[in-house]
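URGENT: need a sanity check before tomorrow's submission.

F., can you look over the Flagella basal body P-ring formation protein FlgA record below? I want to be sure the sequence and structure line up before it goes out.
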Amino acid sequence: MRGLAALCLFLSTGPLAAETVMATRTIRPQQVLTAEDIRIDQGRIEGAFSDPMEVIGMEARFAIYPGRAVMRGALAEPALIDRNQAVELVFEHGGLRIAAEGRALGRGAVGDRIRVMNETSRTVLFGTVAPNGSVVVSK
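Structure tokens as predicted:
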């Protein structure tokens, strides 16, 4: 009997309210989102963000237009390194640590694998962006 009463109470309240994060203005590619760029609308859109805290501080991968839902694939971690930026290249193996000046050939966030060029030898390498802004290259 108690189970039936709980079911009737649940059905009488209607569906649970869901929220979707929407863009308030045009968000350009590579723009970092702020609280002024988004709003919360009632209703659920599959594949869209529902928590504004997941969106603020993220970078748009492509343009998002006003009134559109902010979809999960539209955002990424903000890039720490831009294309053509001077970076420190670091190679570590065992107790050996070699650092050299390099140039980024692509953009990347922490943990991304990007192409870099050693400034001295002009050799193109791949490396992983470190939290301090350097690029860790491996053999």
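My own read: The first strand starts at residue 19 and ends at 23. Residues 31 and 59 are 5 Å apart (CA to CA). If you see anything odd, call me.
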